[in-house]
Write a structure and sequence with these properties.
Layout (H helix, E strand, L loop, with lengths): L16 E6 L3 E6 L8 H13 L4 E5 L6
Length: 67
């Protein structure tokens, strides 16, 4: 017996930039891609959030970023 199914691939939106605080000591910014219309505001907002929270060390992760 064969069961046939039609699958439709869902479009998943992955943010180009994400940020978080690690151990109340480090800010972490993950930049997955630099699209043509990248909003540097996203990075600025993350840096301001870190500064307001007293975070003085920031890790910028570019792993897997094709440029």
């Amino acid at each position: 017996m064969t069961i046939a199914r039609t699958l439709v691939r869902a479009k998943i939106q992955v943010p180009n930039i994400s940020s978080k605080v690690i151990n109340d000591s480090f800010g972490y910014i993950d930049i997955r891609m630099f699209p043509m219309d990248i909003h540097t505001n996203e990075v600025s907002v993350a840096l301001e959030k870190f500064e307001t929270g007293g975070i003085k060390k920031v890790i910028i992760d570019l792993r897997g970023n094709p440029g």
